[in-house]
Amino acid sequence: MRQWTVRDVMTAPVVWVGEDTTYREIVSALAECRGSALPVLDDHGRVVGVVSEADVLRKVEFAEGNKEPRFFERPSRRAARAKAGADLARDLMSTPPVTIGPDEPVTAAARLMESRRVKRLPVVDGERRLVGIVSRRDLMKTHLRPDSDIRDDIVNGVFQRALWADPAGLTVDVRDGVVELRGQLDRHNTAIFAVLLAEQVPGVVQVVDHLSWQVDDSPRSADGEPT
Predict the structure, then answer these.
(1) Dihedral (C-alpha) 53, 56, 59, 60: value to the nearest 10 degrees?
(2) CA distance readout (Å), 166 to 79, 152, 170, 190, 213
(3) Beta bridge mates, 210
(4) What is the largest CA-CA distance in the chain?
(5) Where does residue 220 rank: exposed (0-12), middle (13-18), buried (19+ CB within 10 A)?
(6) Is the per-residue pLDDT at 221 higher than 60?
């Protein structure tokens, strides 16, 4: 069963800035690409940081007359004040950059965005050179797949290739990403795996299980009930 990767949904080519890009040029680039952040590249094309709208807005937050450091100020607040006086990407950017490889599954990208609280990730190769960028909106593309494509993945990828099951006696209906499975399989465990694998197919919103089986080989607890 084919799994969608970052490469399938990422955007390329990417608008980026160099370490010596000026504040005004960064603001212009952000406005041009209508993005919330830009990767910063060194002279070898490697991603060394990310400069975001939040970084450039420090100048607005700490306007003239509000740049003097204060006693007992939090380190994060002190760093924000320092960025307010920066004029180059190397001084404005956030480091180290949170990146991902193009062959990572889209689920890994989603988890990384959630854990690091970022909206987009630069996509880099093994040398950390920029090859694309993936955003939360890009990850949503998996849920725009046609129902017919989802059904083909389940019939061919799940039942035939992964489970070696004959789909002739099975019914797979997909409507708006909701999958209904009907029919009889040889074993209970096979039916369990069929549902689990179908849930992982890109674009699947929900799996409604109406499968039956000939042999109940599911694990049972001490009282004889299925676990």
Answers:
(1) -20
(2) 62, 14, 8, 12, 13
(3) 182
(4) 78
(5) exposed
(6) no
**pLDDT over 70 (residue 198):** yes
Architecture label for domain 145-215: 2-Layer Sandwich (3.30)
- Give the H/E segment covering residue 178: strand 178-187
Report the alpha-carbon angle 214-218-221, nearest 5.
135
Q: Hey, what CATH topology would domain 6-140 get?
A: CBS-domain (3.10.580)
66-90 tens-digit pLDDT = 545 555 556 666 666 666 677 899 9
Which pTM was predicted?
0.70
Buried-state track 124-140, b at ≥16 Cβ within 10 A, e below 16: beeebebbbbbbeebbe
Q: Which two tokens stand for residue 126?
A: 């093994």
